[in-house]
Amino acid sequence: MAAYKDKNGKWYVSVYYDNWKGERDRKVKRGFATKKEALEWERQFLNQKTGDLDMTFSAFVENYKTDMKQRLKQSTWITKVSIIDEKILPYFKNKQMKDIKATDVIAWQNMLMTFKDKDGKSYSPCYLKTIHNQLSAIFNHAVRYYELKSNPAAKAGNMGKEKTKEMLFWTKPEYLQFSEAMMDKPTSYYAFEMLYWCGLRLGELLALTVADFDFEKQTVRISKSCQRIAGEDVITDPKTPKSNRVIQMPDFLVQEIADYIDSIYGADKNTRLFPFTKYYLHHEMTRGCKETGVKRIRIHDLRHSHVSLLIEMGFSAVAIADRVGHESIDITYRYAHLFPTRQTEIANKLNLERS
Length: 355
Fold this sequence. Notes:
about 50% helix, DNA polymerase, domain 1, 2 domains, mainly alpha
């Protein structure tokens, strides 16, 4: 390794390496104040390219970002990078990957668990767990693909705890009472109709276009999601592969949506039916609850309401999972407390068998 001084007195390095095609390539990096800084950059750069765990944590994170960015949804990636850059890198950035121990992770955890902002507030247990999970994901990546011997974050154990959200829902009478208050704004009314009677996720609703509806077959196709990123609406793939689905709509909803599309001036197949933000719907839900006295639930709880309605109607967990796009039937079974018990029916049938 060698460093050179240029005409303005700064140091630079010229490095040869094998690129992703297996071809010999050259990288020049200028602007270093000292020879030592230039040589250290060169060492870290070569470690990154060879996957040598003598590299610093900061250098490995650059590898991790390169490896993972295209595999995650943009909104998920932005959140991940924000946590890494703000909560993890400041502590670990200069440590060698191979030298980071569980005790280092514990010290980092203790720092975060005792942190208080200017108002004296600490990080929530749920947020602490989220931060730790991001650190552990980085080390898991190093174990899986870069031959790190073990994950020190896993050895240290997690901090915080996952928040268990209460599963709220509206009964059909509650929803019908609420929906009456929405009829003065057709856009809001039809949005809530789709959420309640089809069990859509909010992002799925906001991404719907005219082309997604087949009124002859009475179906709506779910094939995308809308996320608000940096103030812009971004259309992405749905949450999971199983989220790609076709939902059969009840007759009354088919007619409602057909009438709504007819009312949209200049609508074509690419026109979005609900081109507003989630905050608009939050505001509308609050308005409707105040006007009707129906208990306030979250927008996502309308999806829970749809599932609970289907359970009450006697549909199987398999049929429900298929309709709402659950990735696993185990997710549907989280609603197990809503499924009616069949113990009495089983006992009666066994009595008949015995007699």
